[in-house]
Prior knowledge:
Elements: E1 5-9, H1 13-25, E2 29-33, H2 36-46, E3 50-54, H3 62-70, E4 77-82, H4 86-94, E5 99-103, H5 107-126, E6 134-137, E7 140-143, E8 148-151, E9 154-155, H6 160-171, E10 177-178, H7 179-187, H8 192-209, E11 219-222, E12 226-229
Parallel strand pairs: 1-2, 1-3, 3-4, 4-5
Antiparallel strand pairs: 6-7, 7-8, 8-9, 10-12, 11-12
Helix pairs in contact: 2-3, 6-8
Calcium ion (CA) binds next to loops.
Amino acid sequence: MNKSLILxxxxxxxxxxxxxxxxxxxxxxxxTAPNGQSAILEVSSHNPDIVLLDLGLPDMDGVEIIKxxxxxxxxxxxxxxxxxxxxxxxxxxxxxxxxxxxxPFSVEELLARLRVTQxxxxxxxxxxxxxxxxxxxxKLRVDYVAGCAYLNEEELHLxxxxxxxxxxxxxxxxxxxxxxxxxxxxxxxxxDNNIASLRVFMATxxxxxxxxxxSPQYIQTHIGVGYRMLKVE
Length: 233
Ligand code: CA
């Protein structure tokens, strides 16, 4: 099986070795870069499928690297950050990163993130989310043209904000959306007030689409970061 090509950007040799050993054991192809300059060079010359990007690099700010890559490519970027870099993590997601891993992470977590990203990648290759007319995920269906959402073929009665929120999540399936990104998309600003409102709307939306709102199947919470719609089999 021809697995994805992963670019590992990490200056810490032991972390880099842990990642590449894992990738090798699971038959991924990979490239490595120890700093930002070589990361950008590798991205532009080898066009990897997924970039694993450490935010704490010696020469460049990780967020700057993401912004640079995003000027010409939408390739998935999974950031790796230390717990002390929580705000950097949010900035990186807002700059266009797709997902994150927090150090220290396990091999299982790394592989799970790669699988989620690969699923998103294969969905994106089939049809661009921006051009999709009808979205289907498990028992959930959104007809963007008609402006209706269904669960088990029964129409959901959503408020305009709940519907907007659902569309934003479905159009970005597999991607972690930050509170700032969501509140700016829905209300055009990101006051703390809006983040509180977002929690309320998310709770009411979940009541309508999740079988068990307390152990959600469709919308995953990332505490202190945001939300993500998961692909349901
Ligand atoms: Ca580092």
